[in-house]
Specification:
558 residues; alpha/beta; twelve-stranded mixed β-sheet; 20 helices; 25 strands
Length: 558
């Protein structure tokens, strides 16, 4: 019998009122701010009240480099939480909100899949509680106030050639990457080059996901550098006097969203920076709140461990004082075959040799995660065409690296299919040795930090950066920003900057095209290769299949 689509399964879910989900975590109903019957925000007042609670165990889910075969990281994250609750653990999930750009572009949705989903799936993949719209509005308010300041006399002496604050929109739109603004005459201002990024690449998004409360949020917003004067001295958002109004726009967005899995377990869905162009983790406030309420909190980091997990460890954990007790690394037999040289149309037939050839990609990720001092469990996300011989080949390989691979069937069976994985992950988390450490210290130079990531995580021979970029990094160090961590913007499909180089390549350099200082968020963005902070739509976007049926229900989300 054919498997139902994700949206069919989600639509048939037996959801509980959100107050009942809150009760599972001890959240009083009057501390939930409902958005309909099945989603709510958790009040800042309640969050402040539980800050003294003991923390639960933090479990990070990451994956190998994504392939067209699909890995199922979000699905595994949700399935693991359902599995933990099945074995009697008090567990909650923390994931990111979905961006409209990729939903209408490549992905079609981002709430898990099969019988391991977060619901309401259609709301989550569309406007949800409006957080992304608030972030977009706050970001663009600042952009408008910068141009308005210049128009009305420019008392801050902003050099219009050095306005660094771009605009954002939550959509993939390559036509907006580079624009000329303020055309049309004197009344429209001073023409200058500008451009758009996607909302999830906004520094405002990063700040919302790293701030502890509204006071911290406003301070970070005010510290954002938006332009430079002719003498190259920085102009901050607080100089434009935009930080207060931006905070007002973000007041509700700052509060974490509570929803539920298909099995009615608590799910915090909040924030959504991409991992290939931003830091790729859900909000600190959602994660830390969940840790005060649950014994086990499962969160994910975007894309492969070379991007999302590295940033989770080196940025989020460093800034929030967190540490993962165990990392779950998601892989599939199908992805091993693709890394071993097979095409997408060749994956349904047994090929143990291709699996073995592809395993080094998995192996490198295992070694990288272990280098942070954290134990690793491999979740082998099961597909129907996987054979016992292929599965065993992966298990045998993982064992040689001192780790364990466990088959999980959560996509087809929900939490019941993840019981073995959940049992082992809980055991490892409970044995947490507490050896976690980022891979570079704060005091290391900025370029040396970039080299450390490139050489230790990607296994590159060198970082290729011209003197202008090196001088810019030195200048930021002299201005007091040398202790900031690095946020690498790089293709997710490979350890290199070439998306077509799968496996575990060696003998390559990492070209750095541009560096951006996110002074409010507190990191330096390093743009590598051809990566774009405003994606484009594919030749056939998912949007062409998304529509309403005769009953007014949404079709095409997945």
């Amino acid at each position: 019998m054919a498997m139902k689509s994700d949206i069919q399964i989600a639509r048939e879910a037996s959801k509980k009122p959100i107050q009942e989900i809150g009760e599972k975590l001890g959240i009083p109903s009057d501390e939930l701010l409902p958005y309909g019957h099945d989603k709510a925000k958790v009040s800042q007042k309640f969050i402040n009240q539980i800050r003294g609670n003991k923390d639960g165990k933090l479990i990070l889910v990451t994956s190998i480099n994504p392939t067209p075969a699909g890995e199922g990281k979000s699905t595994t994250t949700v399935g693991l939480v359902d599995g933990l609750n099945r074995i009697g653990k008090k567990a909650a999930v923390c994931i990111r909100e979905a961006s409209l750009g990729p939903n209408f572009g490549m992905k079609g949705g981002a709430a898990g899949g099969g019988y391991a989903q977060v619901v309401p799936m259609d709301d989550m993949n569309l406007h949800f509680t409006g957080d992304f719209h608030a972030i977009t509005s706050a970001h663009n308010l600042l952009a408008a106030m910068i141009d308005n300041h210049i128009y009305w006399g420019n008392s801050l002496e902003i050099d219009t050639r050095r306005v660094t604050w771009r605009r954002v929109i939550d959509m993939n739109d390559r036509a907006l990457r580079q624009i000329t603004a303020s055309l049309g005459g004197v009344s429209n201002g001073f023409p200058r080059e500008a451009g758009f990024d996607i909302t999830v690449a906004s520094e405002v998004m990063a700040i919302l996901c790293l701030a502890n409360d509204l006071k911290d949020l406003q301070e970070r917003l005010g510290a954002m550098i938006v332009a430079y004067r002719r003498d190259k001295s920085p102009v901050y958002a607080r100089d434009i006097k935009a930080d207060g109004a931006m905070t007002v726009l973000l007041k509700d967005a700052m509060q974490p969203n509570l929803v539920q899995t298909l099995e009615n377990n608590p799910a915090f869905v909040h924030g959504g920076p991409f991992a290939n162009i931003a830091h790729g983790c859900n909000s600190v406030i959602a994660t830390t709140t969940a840790l005060k309420l649950a014994d086990y909190v499962v969160t994910e980091a975007g894309f492969g461990a070379d991007l999302g997990a590295e940033k989770f460890m080196d940025i989020k954990c460093r800034k929030a004082g967190l540490h993962p007790a165990v990392v779950v690394l998601v892989a599939t037999v199908r992805a091993m075959k693709m890394n071993g040289g097979l095409g997408k149309n060749e994956l349904d037939h047994e090929d143990v040799e291709a699996v073995k050839k592809g395993c080094p990609n998995l192996g490198r990720h295992i070694e990288n995660v272990k280098s942070f001092g954290v134990p690793v469990v491999v979740a082998l996300n099961h597909f129907v065409h996987d054979t016992e011989a292929e599965i065993q080949a992966v298990k045998d390989y993982v064992k040689t690296l001192g780790a364990e691979a466990i088959v999980s069937k959560h996509w087809a069976q929900g939490g019941e299919g993840a019981v073995d994985l959940a049992t082992r992950v809980a055991e490892v988390a409970d044995e947490d040795p507490g050896n976690f450490s980022p891979i570079y210290p704060d005091e290391m130079g900025l370029f040396q930090k970039i080299e450390t990531i490139a050489k230790r995580i990607y296994r590159a021979d060198e970082v290729l950066a011209d003197q202008k970029i090196r001088n810019q990094l030195k200048e930021w160090e002299e201005q007091g920003y040398g202790n900031l961590p690095i946020c690498m913007a790089k293709t997710q499909y490979s350890f290199t900057t070439d998306p077509n180089r799968r496996g575990a390549p060696t003998g390559f350099g990492v070209p750095v095209r541009e560096v951006r200082l996110s002074a409010g968020a507190g990191f330096v963005v390093v743009i590598c290769g051809e990566i774009m902070t405003m994606p484009g739509l594919p030749s056939v976007p998912s949007a062409v299949n998304i529509k309403l049926d005769a009953n007014g229900d949404i079709e095409g989300l997945s």
